[in-house]
Amino acid sequence: MDVKNLHTYFYTKAGVSKAVNGVNFSLREGEILGIIGESGSGKSVAVKSILQIVPRPGKIAEGQIIYRGRDLLADKQAIGQVRGKDITMIFQEPMTSLNPVLTIGRQLTEGIRLHLGLSKEEANQRACEFLKQVKITNPEELLTRYPHHLSGGMRQRVMIAMALATDTKILIADEATTALDVTIQQQIIYLLKELRDRLHMSIIFITHDMGVINEIADNTAVMYCGKIQEYASTYEVMKHPRHPYTEALLKAIPSIDAEQQKLSTIPGSVPSLLALPEGCSFSNRCTQCTDRCREEEPKLIRLEDGHRVRCWKYDGQGEVVDS
Amino acid sequence: MKFLKRLLSNKLAVLGIFFILIFLLASLFAPLIATQDYSEMDLYNVLALPSAEHLMGTDEMGRDIFSGIIYGARTSVLIGVSVLLFGGLVGTAIGILAGFFEGKLDMVLMRIIDTLMAFPSILLAMFMIAIIGTGLKGAIVAVSIATVPRFARIVRSSVLKTKKNEYVDACRVLGQSNMKILFRHILPNGMAPIIVQATLTFSEAILIISGLGFLGLGADPMSAEWGAMLSNARAYLMTKPHIAIFPGIAIAITVLGFNLLGDGLRDTLDVKEY
Amino acid sequence: MKYVMKRLLSALVVVFLTSIIVFCIVHLIPGDPAMVYAGAGAKQEQVENVRIEMGLDKPLVVQYINWAGGILQGDFGTSLATKQPILPVLMDKFHNTFILSALGIVFAVGFGLLLGIVSALKHNSFIDLISMFIAIIGISMPIFWVGMLLVMVFSVQMGWFPATGNDTWVSYILPTITIGMNSMAIITRMTRSSVLEVLNEDYMVTAVAKGLRGRTVILVHALKNAMIPIVTTIGMQFGYLMGGAVLTETVFVYPGLGRYLVDSLTKRDYPAIQASILLLAVVFVVVNFIVDSTYYKLDPKMKDA
Q1: 3-state SS class at C84
Q2: What is the rounded distance in angstroms from the CA atom of residue A252 to the CA atom of residue A275?
Q3: CB–CB of A192/A157 below 8 Å?
Q4: In C, which residues are within 8 Å of A100 by CB distance?
Q5: CATH code assigned at A23
Q6: Do chains A and B touch (3 or more CB pairs under 8 A)?
Q7: CA-CA distance, C28 to C32, in Å (whole number)?
Q8: pTM of the prediction?
Q9: What are A9's strand-pairing partners?
Q10: d(C-alpha A296, C-alpha A279), whole Å
């Protein structure tokens, strides 16, 4: 899948909030892409735009989302065929993401029956298969139960099974481990990686937790104020961060061994999406900020090793990839 | 006073307040506004259409309807406030007992309250009237009892909710007595739903009272009371329907006013137990 | 099942308690019950006769047992006003009120649900505003005035519907609207707020993300959840409806239980008052019980409670 120049804005009484302001990325088959950023960076809105489930008053203002040769945004029919089938999503809160008055079985099979046209028995069978894939031991019994019978970790597994059972090619996980205990988090991350290997699917993993990104993602995109600021393999981003924002984020992670008197923070605060600054959106908080940063917004450039970064520090070191 | 600002920005609530003000002013300044004493009967002018002399016409006994409406407002306020006081105090007391002490007391009280709530207010009121007898006193007591369950429920749930807050535990650790905790902390913080309930109770009370008046079970049918006026108008519905219009509008506007205000308060104070 | 049994027990307790209170009406009013039964202007001798006849000299508990026993066997006593047994009259009136209430609730639920759902789906649109406007007026207008207005417009002016009685099916229309109007408004508001709340829940986003077709999403996922509080409201409304029956029946001179109760109150016909109130109480308890049981079926969480 290729996402090109995606802009999604929220048209509110207070003004236009540019939640996603020019995002580009590619996703290969079998790749796990991690998108990291703080709250309000636009990562959630970006992936919701892919599925076209952006809540009001948000609207996709421009862009192209190419999947298997079709632009999902231009081709009106395409998204209906793809949503919930080829491209699926799991959410942050397993406790409230399942319908409390419908059985697990019903919620699992309705997608299967709709998208794959199976009969009730076939759908139930398939549901059980996928429940086994997510390491649930007695799936047949689970089908008749209700969400409130399950723990958070189990509900999230059910959500994953639900997403996969329709022959998903791209699974989008929007903060899917954020609300879980650390140990359960580990299990889910491990499970997702295993499933990617076995089913050859791609995953877009959204989170604000660097530790999780490190564990699961092949490549990482760092988002801030609606734009991607840095985009490279996870190893490179973690070990050799180029963008001051990424550097600051990594520095802010407290370490058990290090001798620290004070926790490192990033001074200042995120600018309002209703009134973004003229130059680089990180300029008001960046320790290496220059005049040019304040006046002109840097473009995303690709450095020699393929590492992409949006910062004037690297001006002239690579070709411009997007605006 | 941020709350006032928010409330006043809700246009429907403002409309409600407007209606309520008309109602209150009419009842307060009744002798000044009404054109004549309601008991005056202009026997040469029965069932007259609105005119300069009788702004809303006259009823079947020649009484000025406009004056009747104005004095009727006074009656309604009296009854409404009495009901609110009695029903509110008793209901709040029960709610506090149940919510604060919980346990067996709570269970018993709530059983009683639930039983009472299962019955429509007007029938509860009629039941009380069966025992107490008709008339103004009976009507007030009857309607008060009908509003007790609702207050009890709301106060109880408010107390239960507020009790759970950690600052209550903090108060206890500091050694504050139960009474103090209750009145200083729990009640003030739990006031919002109670206020909404009080507003809506007032509107309900007016409906029930006028209903009783209509049935002849409430205030003295000869006195200025909107329900009673409508009851009198019934006999002439076929021939002179106009006398039924104004009392009904009076009731509707007053009730609407309190309902709009209640809704507005509920939205502004963000009360969810409704 | 245990839940249902618990509610049943609860219901029986309430009926029992109510019967005690109802029984006590005669003894709670000031004055001598025997005199009440004998009627005004009865001579001392007659009063004493009545006292023995009605068993008023026996201890209270025995009196209650006799009275309750009678009721369970179908003997609701004799009306002071008509000197006739109450039961047949009571049943006839109740039958009428029941029909009117049933029609009223069908009207209220039918239009209420429809309007409420449409308003919620078309949140903040013109239809929504109009519906809410109608709804809030609907709960503010006194029932009896609504009835009178309807009569004024549709019977007197236009002559479409009869103003009184219950002979033809047409004569049921105005009373039904009158009795149901208030409840309809309440149901509309409740439905709208319940559906709106459900539409904002996370699981609705999940449903959309799964690619479920619009209609499926709304109908199944949303309504099944939204209906839970709505059903409770509807159940409560049936009770209030029967309360409103009193007023509606008076306006339309409809021969129902409500009017019978009012007449009895005015005439101080205590046996009739007691019988009517007891019957109404039992009906409410039964309705509440049925509603509770349905609620239990709708909400899976209750099944484990």
Answers
A1: coil
A2: 27
A3: no
A4: 203, 225, 300-301
A5: 3.40.50.300
A6: no
A7: 10
A8: 0.83
A9: A18, A59
A10: 4
> Residue A67 domain-assigned?
yes
How close is the nearest chain B Cα to the Cα of C83, in Å?
Answer: 20
Q: How far is CA A281 from CA A268, A269, A270, in A?
A: 12, 11, 8
Q: Range of A279's domain?
A: 2-86+168-254+262-322
φ and ψ at B144, to 5 degrees? -60, -50
pLDDT in tens, A250-260: 888 777 776 76
Size of interface B-C (CB pairs under 8 A): 119
Q: Which of C148, C174, C188, C262 to mutate to test the interface with B (most CBs of B within 10 A)?
A: C148
Residue of chain B minimizing CA distance to C190: B274
Alpha helices (runs of H) in chain B, residue ranges in sequence order: 2-9, 11-28, 30-33, 65-101, 103-117, 121-132, 136-163, 166-173, 178-180, 187-189, 191-215, 226-234, 245-269
Residues from chain C contacting residue A101 (CB–CB below 8 Å): 224-225, 228, 298-300
Out of A83, A96, A159, the one facing C211 most closely (by C-beta) is A83
Interatomic CA distance for residues A90 and C205, integer angstroms: 10
Chains B and C touch, contact meaning at least 3 pairs of CB atoms under 8 angstroms apart = yes
How many residue pairs bridge chain A and chain C with CB atoms within 8 Å of each other?
Answer: 68
Task: Characterize the bridge pairing of strands A202-207 and A219-224.
Answer: unpaired
> Is A96–C203 a contact, with Cβ atoms under 8 angstroms apart?
yes
**Complex prediction ipTM:** 0.84
A152 part of a folded domain = no
Give the closest-approach CA distance of B177 to chain C in angstroms: 36
Domain count, chain A: 1
Per-residue pLDDT of B133-170, as tens digits, reads 777 788 888 889 888 988 888 888 888 877 777 777 77
For residue B127, what are the CA distances in angstroms to A70, A112, A172, C23, C87? 73, 59, 63, 12, 20
Q: How many CA atoms lie within 13 A of C230 on its CB side?
A: 29
Distance CA B219, CA B227 (A): 9
- Which of C14, C140, C277 is the closest to B127 by Cβ? C277
Q: Which of A97, A150, A204 to mutate to test the interface with C (most CBs of C within 10 A)?
A: A97
The pLDDT tens digits along chain B (274 residues) read 677 777 787 888 888 999 999 998 888 888 887 777 777 777 777 777 777 777 778 877 888 888 888 888 988 888 889 999 999 899 988 888 888 887 888 888 887 887 787 778 888 888 888 777 777 788 888 889 888 988 888 888 888 877 777 777 777 777 777 777 777 777 777 788 888 889 988 998 999 889 888 888 877 777 888 998 898 888 888 788 788 888 999 999 999 999 999 988 888 877 665 4
| Chain centroid offset of residue C4 CA | 22
Taking Cα atoms as reference points, which of A288, A302, A246, A276 lies closest to residue A35?
Answer: A246
Interface test with B, best of C18, C124, C144, C284 (most B CBs within 10 A): C144
Nearest to B115 among C17, C152, C250 (CB): C17
Options 3.40.50.2300, 1.10.3720.10, 3.40.50.300, 2.40.50.100; CATH of B11-20+61-162+190-269: 1.10.3720.10
Question: Under an 8 A CB cutoff, do C220 and A93 touch?
Answer: no
- The C-alpha of C84 sits at a distance from chain A's nearest C-alpha, in angstroms, of 54
Q: Where are the alpha helices (DSSP H) in chain A?
A: 43-51, 78-82, 104-116, 120-133, 139-143, 152-164, 182-199, 210-216, 234-239, 244-252, 291-295
A50 → chain C, closest CA residue:
C209
CB contact under 8 A, B207 and C277: no
Give the start-to-end residue ranges of the domains of chain B.
Answer: 11-20+61-162+190-269
